[in-house]
Amino acid sequence: MAEFFATVLAKIGANLIESLILRLTQSLFARAYAPAV
After folding, report:
1. Distance CA 28, CA 37 (A)
2. CA atoms within a 13 Å half-sphere pointing along the CA-CB vector of 13
3. Residue 34 main-chain phi, psi, to 5 deg
4. How high is the pLDDT of residue 4?
5. Rounded mean pLDDT, 31-36
6. Are 8 and 14 in contact (CB under 8 A)?
7. Taking residues 23-37, what's their average pLDDT?
8. What's the per-residue H, E or C state across the chain?
9. Measured between alpha carbons, how far is 35 from 21 in angstroms, rounded to an integer?
10. pLDDT bracket for residue 31 (50, 70, 90)
11. Which of 19, 18, 17, 23 is nearest to 31 (CA)?
């Protein structure tokens, strides 16, 4: 059970980090290509 919870937490953490990186990159590109907005 401990290994199962560890893998689940690892997957959730990876998904959260990936979504955060995607949001950061999207905001950076938006600022770079649309400084007026």
Report:
1. 12
2. 6
3. -135, 70
4. 96
5. 77
6. no
7. 84
8. CHHHHHHHHHHHHHHHHHHHHHHHHHHHHHHHHCCCC
9. 20
10. confident
11. 23
pTM, to two decimals: 0.63
- Joined tokens for residue 23: 């949001």
> Could you tell me the two tokens for 3?
């290994």
- What's the longest Cα–Cα distance across the chain? 52
Matching residue, tokens 């950061």: 24
Q: Can you read off the two tokens belonging to residue 35?
A: 């400084």
Token digits for 17? 């980090």
Instruction: Give CA separation, 29 vs 9, 11, 12, 19, in Å.
Output: 30, 27, 26, 15
